[in-house]
């Protein structure tokens, strides 16, 4: 399955849930950095008060959401950068924010990029993940995934299977609109220590993955 099909053939929340356990990698100077997606959030477009495209807002800053499914949308807040992928057909501005990965590839380089941060602090948040990749700009914004150094492995044989995927409210959403603030559009691996707000007492010995 190619990216354009994958990111358009289901609803955005279904795509977001399906991304859990898939490898996300970034290749820099010939080295593969990355890990397994353990947390991601769906943003449902013009009706979603938490989405950057709410009410049809469109600008250079959020243009990536309006592009065809499979287009990278990188946005910034202060000095931090965030990795999203657009979902659905062109001009239907929905997307998924990857919030955290369980790091596997390029660990030493990612630690250097995070100024020595290690363990769960390496990639347990969307800005931390991008820092670990060494990304400090929006350079890859508006690029299609297959035309970039980012790869999301869609081969089901390479996907880790969670014992349980939790659906919960998204992080940091304005409570002035309780309906959208409380919609369970954040998906994460139960018990995985790299999920952004996972408490130590909730860590699973297998990081929440099924063992076969």
UniProtKB/TrEMBL annotation:
Pfam families: Pur_DNA_glyco
Documented EC number(s): 3.2.2.-
Keyword DNA repair included in the entry's annotation: yes
Gene Ontology BP annotations: base-excision repair
Gene3D superfamilies recorded: Methylpurine-DNA glycosylase (MPG)
Protein's UniProt keywords contain Signal: no
Gene Ontology molecular-function annotations: alkylbase DNA N-glycosylase activity; DNA binding
Keywords, sorted A to Z: DNA damage, DNA repair, Hydrolase
Family: Belongs to the DNA glycosylase MPG family.
Database matches in PANTHER family: DNA-3-METHYLADENINE GLYCOSYLASE
Name of this protein: Putative 3-methyladenine DNA glycosylase
Species annotation: Lactobacillus hamsteri DSM 5661 = JCM 6256
